[in-house]
Amino acid sequence: MSFKPKSASIVFYVADIARTEAFYNDTFNLGLMRMEGADPFWLQGRLESGLDLIFFEMEGRRGNTPAVVFDVTEGGIDDIVANLAEKGITIVTPVSEAPGGWSADFLDPDGFGLGLWQSGELPRSLK
User: Fold this and answer.
1) Domain residue spans in the chain?
2) CATH class belonging to 8-119
3) pLDDT tens per residue across span 79-106
4) Which residues make Cβ contacts (< 8 Å) with residue 75, sequence separation at least 6?
């Protein structure tokens, strides 16, 4: 199974979501929106280019970001991750629940973290 991403987001894991919100809104006038689904909340903004910036408050992962997260727009995240594993690609986080759907993380050959995100409305497998 091949996967050709059509869109992506840059995801940041931060120590203080309110501080991050103030910084990016005050410094860059991004107009980040508070989103529900994570505790306490998460932030999302879109650049004019169409690229989404997403911020989660999370302990332990700071400094490993930002990460590029590819959107799985047609479903099949389980199949894609299985295919990556079959090719010997390091899976860091298997398919797991994420706000609004499912996500998984893996490493490229140089150790850079990449991710996948799929809406919960789409089928996890297309087989």
Assistant:
1) 8-119
2) alpha beta
3) 999 999 999 999 999 999 998 999 999 8
4) 118, 122, 123, 124, 125, 126
